[in-house]
Records
---
Amino acid sequence: MKKLGTLVLTATLLAVSAANAAEVLEEVEVQTTGKSTGSMTGMMIGGVGGPIGALVGAGIGALFGGGAQDVSGLSERAYKVRIADGHEKVVRSSEVLAIGEEVDVRGRRAFRTTNASTMEVAVR
């Protein structure tokens, strides 16, 4: 019985993610999709040269993949935010955020802060 209680407590603590208040500083562009696609393509092409060729190909592909995504104008949107404890972090959001807006950060995602004044404006 004692082990079950420990298991439930551990699962509950891991499931609950802490939300941190943050302020949006700027919008930044990230190229993670291009880097991962370039890396995979480079690894497959470099695999002809064996395991070392695959590693070298993956590295070169990641460099060129991110650059290709940037040049083509297909960069993804992310936001640099300042967390309540003062450090800065780059997070993603499915919503378009304004600079200076207060958001909740959960993990690597930013969500709009819901409070009474925001809901009051939405009702009007």
---
Amino acid sequence: MDSRREKYLDNIVEHLVNGTKYDTDHLNVYIIKFPFSDGWEVFGSHREMSDIYDISPERFGVHRWNFDQEMIEVFDLIEDEADYVWENYFEGARFFGNEYAKSDGLINEGVNKQKEYLEYVYNDLVNNTKFRDASYRDIDIYDGKCKSLQIGIRWGSEAPYFNYVPDCLENYLKDYWGLTYNEIQELFWDKYEQHIINMVLSKKENVSPHVRVHVDYLRESKYLDKQTEFLQKIVDIMIEETVPYNLSKGSVITPFVADKNSNGKYILSANHCKNMVDYFEDEFTLGNIFINYLEMFGLSYEEMEEVMYSYFNVLFEKFFKRFFDLSYKTRPRLDESVNLGFVDKVTDIVLKEIVWDFDRGHVHFPMIDYTSHIRDDGFLAAVYSDDAFSLDFSEPNTNWHVDLMKHIEDNYAITGNEFNRVWGSLQGEIWEKTEEYWNSFTRGY
């Protein structure tokens, strides 16, 4: 076994030991709760210390099957690696059980040890977070395990910020370090996110010029030159000419003409706008649809790109930010009481019933007899919302998601936390399909 893999297994052992709970019942009997078991087990009694040393893999072998399943499903271990973790875990659990009993149950090792573990993970993360090269633009961790973390930064008018935990980072912290969702939130928000932001600000001269020219705290001078003022006035005009497609504001009508024959305006969705904000340099093409509008201002191609970058960002802040802010913090997560296998099976069944027709731009839910155009805001409002069941979208035909979940409740008898898990999974998968549709529909613009 190589040293890095052994370190990974040791981290799992430490995570399991930290997640082990010790307590004393009303008869002064010492009890233990394993992180891979639902119930409590007796491991000793008051002032009778010999039983403490019976926290052993042999005594609790009845839990081995559940343990192996967790090692495979959560940590992706093979058989000999699971054996290693099993044996070493009980050494740690036995030690802290002994310490608990010696203190007559007056200490709580788990909380302090977990805080120490999170601090250790944070420090290791910081030490392995580096600029990719001398251009000081891309930030990676662990030599490229996760790349370009800085693209999640939003350049607000007063200060930069993140509004989500990058997917790759979240998966890495969960899979490699064994952190839970709440632990990842605690480590990232106002802590590791600020470290990444500070790294970027320390090299702000290397931030994309499309950003620097429009964000005061990234500019070398506090005062805008006349040309920049002119470009900002153009953006202001474009924003004034941009109006919501309908009341839900899931897309907007831009001032750009998409079809000269019909004078039809270009419709921009929240999803496509966010894509432009996140990946402007890689994804944006200055096509005729934009040039035909901007050429009346006498701009160079470089100035047109600056204007479009600013336009997408201002538009996102004004109309679309509410669809995306804090979605990773507020979207329903798996609760311990949820049967993951059951809800995932229900989700898969429902997803297979949904019919997507990209050629005609339609989506059909036969189980509730609902059909919509994929671009229709009545459909998209629930897909983009972080709180789809409490917000009033003020539009007809926006309650399809309510009908869908009612159908699932009636047919599959889901309840409580299962409802949140199923809807969260469906919403994410439907979101991905709309993104796939928009990527094909907007390709070439």
---
Amino acid sequence: MQNNNGEINFNGHQIYFIMPPDIELMPSNVILFELIYLSSKSSSEDICMGWGAFPMVNGDFQINEGKFKVPMINGVIDYEIDAFKSIESKFRRNIDEWLCNLYIEVKKIDLVDFKQYESKISFKTHVCSKHKKKSLAKKTS
């Protein structure tokens, strides 16, 4: 999966999201990405190496479409960050906070057209990580 120049190629793998209807879109809707180092012979647990956030909605309150660069930040997700400019200022203050860039392409597929992809897609539920459980417990306390 990783080649000699440090790039990770996902070999054409695609991720599908079911988005809220246009009337329910909000500027706060984001997609969070986590880069996880999976457990192996040398490490017995999964480690979150970095994260990034992508805004689902553009300035016209439409779903973002096209090719984008998502900066990935070192470490686990910081749930205290509430604006994209805070993410940018985090790695501008200290370049060591920046891990890499994730390049993505977003295409909107209507539900009518989704039928042709149905047989190729298997949806899985998200398992909450230990860190997230701890941070959620702190917030509810």
---
Amino acid sequence: MFINKWSIFPVNQKIKHKSIPEQSSKTSHKRKQKLILPKLQLSLIFTSIIIFILASVIYFATVNIVFLKLNHLGIELGLKPNSSFFKELSSLESITAKIYGITVFVGLLTSFFIGLKLSHKVAGPIYCLNKHIKNVCNGKTNEDVRFRKNDYLLELQDNFNLLMEKYRNLQK
């Protein structure tokens, strides 16, 4: 154990996350509302979409440069504009554009839903902890906080529960 310079209580360097006890059939630990902290979640989703769009634009530009170079190569070789080379190049360019459009559409949807799912795993624990702190301050509970087992920030749960343990010991 060591004393963390930001904490008032000893903290294990490697905390093993307490497993969440099985919930009764009456209570579900699954949140139905997907946008719990809209500002945080939408910024994370927006960031994932922007990254995807930037990667798509770079890919699109690269493919277009290749087609331009092939077009210039055909001109340098003295091929006629109606030659089979230019017809095939035009056909490939058209097919590539269609595939690119479909890929971008599917990629944007995928980015949105993955961003939503990941942001929920971050925003959920923050929301839960905030709600729990309010309940503790209002005297409604002095129990440990429990996040879902697949949520991120489980270390925050464990450290808060250590704090709650200290709080309960002070109340005795």
